[in-house]
């Protein structure tokens, strides 16, 4: 039986202390009923003997501690799930904010969930087409993978996130596909951009959106990604759908975690973040994947902006340990006008080899991927050498590699945010660019693929 406590001792900012409580659990939801009938909510942050420290979801302004009652509801934050969630927009607490009716839930799920049992995991091995050449061709996304995007302040990760959400699909099979999009701690302008883009392109019909704004409480920021993953688990493992989860921005989530940790007076770790940041991120990321015997899957693309473009900052550093690679956006390429400015050389998809090849993409994919990486790397080195010593210091072949690097950035990487390329188009563009180089330089591609696909750019034999 729920108890009402009239023992609210003090309210300071977003924190409230309730005395003489019994049977209260950490993370439990609390309803604060005021004398005028208004109800606010919060959750238990700390339990110290018979005293509970509660963090409010809403502002504490106007809260009368002397007349208010605290009611502990007996469970943590839950999300009511239903197939009707598709095409809807919710706030960070799972309440509809698109003007539509409330969802009639089939069941309520605890948003904290649990990471997948490693023994029950199925190995990711199926290609997901995002329509972005720098990802599909060189850092392939595989169903069930966790592939974060490392960005920087001011870089267009929002446009890339919207593009992937709009274009992503599973090839070759008529399977149910959905996108769960969580925007964490973003501005109203960004939220408006995502909602307009999803509505304009019709992507909202197969998506579930969770929007948490920068002026919303920190505790709601912590619940938003978990709401999204819980919705994805329901769609994937109860509705047999293949779900792509996009979360932006993980940095805002980690900052909210640091704020709550400071409120609980915990000993800070690196850069003031709590010592359990790695564990906390892992409990979210590891809920993605495939389970043996289940048709559905969860693929995750967390997006984070690196403070000061520093890859060694705790958030990208720990994320890189947990996930299977990273897509890195480059400020240098952004200044050059590339859209999207994906820096393919430091980017990595550790599972890409499992998702490419005959029957998945095309038989020449792995070879052309390796050759494009090698040629672009050598071309960038040639350009750097020319900057120091001048073009006259380059050999004829080095000049071709430098020409290749420029064309690669201009035609392969920079495709704009509205272009949706099939994997065949991406591979064909790669072969067109490789035609700039002599055939004898393409040592990473098997002869049968060279004979089938290679065409020299100048119309010669390419030797």
Automatic annotation (TrEMBL):
InterPro entries: ATP-synt_VA_C (IPR055190), ATPase_a/bsu_AS (IPR020003), ATPase_F1/V1/A1_a/bsu_N (IPR004100), ATPase_F1/V1/A1_a/bsu_nucl-bd (IPR000194), P-loop_NTPase (IPR027417), V-ATPase_su_B/beta (IPR022879). The keyword Transport applies. Residues 131-349 form the ATPase F1/V1/A1 complex alpha/beta subunit nucleotide-binding domain. Pfam families: ATP-synt_ab, ATP-synt_ab_N, ATP-synt_VA_C. Keywords: ATP synthesis, Hydrogen ion transport, Ion transport, Transport. PANTHER family: V-TYPE PROTON ATPASE SUBUNIT B. Belongs to the ATPase alpha/beta chains family. Residues 9-71 form the ATPase F1/V1/A1 complex alpha/beta subunit N-terminal domain. GO terms for molecular function: ATP binding; proton-transporting ATP synthase activity, rotational mechanism. This is V-type ATP synthase beta chain. Produces ATP from ADP in the presence of a proton gradient across the membrane. The V-type beta chain is a regulatory subunit. GO terms for biological process: proton motive force-driven plasma membrane ATP synthesis.
């Amino acid at each position: 039986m729920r108890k009402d406590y009239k023992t609210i001792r003090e309210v300071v900012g977003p924190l409230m202390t309730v005395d003489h409580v019994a049977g209260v659990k950490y993370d439990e939801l609390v309803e604060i009923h005021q004398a005028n009938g208004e109800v606010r909510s919060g959750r238990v942050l700390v339990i110290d003997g018979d005293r509970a420290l509660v963090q409010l979801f809403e502002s504490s302004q106007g809260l009368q501690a002397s007349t208010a009652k605290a009611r502990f509801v007996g469970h943590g934050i839950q999300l009511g799930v239903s197939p009707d969630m598709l095409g809807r927009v919710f706030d960070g607490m799972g309440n509809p904010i698109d003007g539509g009716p409330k969802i009639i839930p089939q069941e309520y799920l605890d948003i904290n969930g649990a990471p997948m049992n490693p023994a029950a995991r199925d190995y990711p091995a199926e290609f997901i087409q995002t329509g972005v050449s720098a990802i599909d061709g060189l850092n392939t996304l595989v169903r069930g993978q966790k592939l974060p995007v490392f960005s920087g302040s001011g870089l267009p990760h929002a446009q890339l996130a919207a593009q992937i959400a709009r274009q992503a699909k599973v090839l070759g099979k008529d399977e149910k596909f959905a996108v769960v999009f969580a925007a964490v701690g973003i501005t109203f302008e960004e939220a408006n951009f995502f909602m307009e883009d999803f509505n304009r392109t019709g992507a909202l019909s197969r998506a579930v959106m969770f929007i948490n704004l920068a002026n919303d409480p920190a505790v709601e920021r912590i619940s938003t990604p978990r709401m999204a993953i819980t919705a994805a688990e329901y769609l994937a493992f109860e509705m047999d759908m293949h779900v792509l989860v996009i979360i932006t921005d993980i940095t805002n989530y980690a900052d909210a975690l640091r704020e709550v940790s400071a409120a609980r007076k915990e000993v800070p770790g690196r850069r003031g973040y709590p010592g359990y940041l790695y564990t906390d991120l892992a409990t979210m990321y590891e809920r993605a994947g495939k389970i043996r015997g289940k048709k559905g899957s969860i693929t995750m693309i967390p997006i984070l902006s690196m403070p000061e473009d520093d890859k060694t900052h705790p958030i990208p550093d720990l994320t890189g340990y947990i996930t299977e690679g990273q897509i890195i956006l480059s400020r240098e390429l952004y200044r050059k006008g590339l859209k999207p400015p994906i820096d393919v050389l430091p980017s990595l998809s550790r599972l890409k080899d499992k998702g490419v090849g005959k029957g998945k993409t095309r038989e020449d994919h792995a070879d052309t991927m390796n050759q494009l990486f090698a040629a672009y790397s050598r071309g960038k080195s040639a350009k750097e050498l020319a900057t120091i010593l001048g073009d006259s210091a380059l050999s004829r072949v080095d000049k071709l590699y430098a020409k290749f690097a420029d064309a690669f950035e201009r035609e392969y990487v920079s495709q704009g945010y509205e272009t949706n390329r099939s994997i065949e188009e991406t591979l064909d563009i790669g072969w067109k660019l490789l035609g700039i180089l002599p055939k004898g330089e393409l040592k990473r591609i098997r002869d049968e693929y060279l004979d089938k696909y290679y065409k020299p750019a100048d119309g010669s034999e390419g030797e």
